[in-house]
Amino acid sequence: MGIIYEINDITKEYPSRNITANKGINLQIHEGEIIALLGPNGAGKSTLIKQMMGLIKPTSGSIRLFGEDIQENSAFITENVAYYAQDPHAITSLRVWESVYFSCRLKGLTKSTSLEETDRLLKLIGLEAFRKDYIKNLSGGQKRLISVALTLTGDPSVMIFDEPTNELDPVKRKKVWDIITEKNREGATIILVTHNVLEAEQVVDRVAIINEGRLVALDGIKQLKHRIDQRMRLDLSASDQAVANQLYTLMLERDPERVTDHKIRFLIQKEDVVNVVKKLMGLGERFDFDFSLVPPTLEDVYLRLEGGEPQRDSIGLKA
Q: FRET label pair with 170: which of 249, 250, 258, 273, CA 20 to 30 Å apart?
């Protein structure tokens, strides 16, 4: 596959705030893939995206799009890349249909084609009934759907989505993911910034994990999972919070994760599964809880790598 974006040793500093948002990031994005940028708040993901869109300039390093240096030819970006922003500030004074229609016109579509595309996209995102409403009066979730529609106008070959499913209910989130995957099947290259690791796992080809301005992992999901595939994830669900607190205390030296008030989680080596289950069966005589064992997910990989490689190889129980 061809290379769409080539990011070479990108560093972005903000001297006035004594912040280095990106630290020597190297990344290639391939034609036709869906790649997700994952990382905690403040990791440097959005800063990197803004540099890829030419909205801010890197302190050092270079970014090429289809081989073109975007600092020398910023217009090349708008011709080839659509960007989903988290908040459509520029269009809030327009009606819903106007925002889509004028976006189509700006992309070079004819008047008749723009009208057809407006109808098609409003139907696709389920906002036909709101076509005459002003965007400023819509809910946060509806505004995000409008941003999705605007990203799709002109049928761009590269699309960047920054947290596209925030503030959406489960039905609308699925709709957005379905739209994104369909555009990818049609040939578009998709770049995602998201915190929803579980949902991202269902659609992405590769994952780039960024933390403290650095790229700490880059690979396919299967390859990333392989790093911890000798472990199983164990979830303990207690009958009430008091029991969960007691279990958490018993597991404290094994660094359990507190998922909810009633649920804790940790990873164990596969060869330790039998001993751990025996241990849990013994605890079951004292406490009311359920447990389940599942293979590691992308979320497990993310949680272990977002702060760099873990210090211990095992965080399971010992019999």
A: 258
Q: Which residues of the chain have pLDDT under 70?
A: 1, 86-90, 225-230, 253, 296, 300, 303-319
Task: Give the chain's domains with CATH numbers.
Answer: 3-221 (3.40.50.300), 227-305 (3.30.70.240)
Q: Where does residue 6 rank: exposed (0-12), middle (13-18), buried (19+ CB within 10 A)?
A: middle
Q: 135: which 2 tokens?
A: 């965007």
Q: For residue 79, give the H/E element and its range.
A: helix 75-80
**Which residues is 218 bridged to in the sheet?**
208
Residues 6+ apart with CB under 8 A from 314: 231, 267, 268, 269, 272
Q: Is the pTM for the entire model greater than 0.90? A: no
Tell me the per-residue pLDDT of 142-194, one tens digit each, with 9 for 90 and over.
Answer: 999 999 999 999 999 999 999 888 888 888 989 999 999 999 999 999 999 98
**Phi, psi at 268, each rounded to 5°:** -135, 155
CA atoms within 13 A on the CB side of 99: 29
Q: Is residue 99 a contact partner of residue 148, using CB atoms and an 8 Å limit?
A: no
Instruction: Please state, in angstroms and rounded to a whole number, the distance separating the CA atoms of residues 118 and 99.
Output: 9
Q: Which amino acid is at 37?
A: L
| 206 and 33 Cβ atoms separated by less than 8 Å | yes
What's the rounded Cα separation, in Å, for the pair 112 and 59?
Answer: 44
Residue showing tokens 């906002």: 127
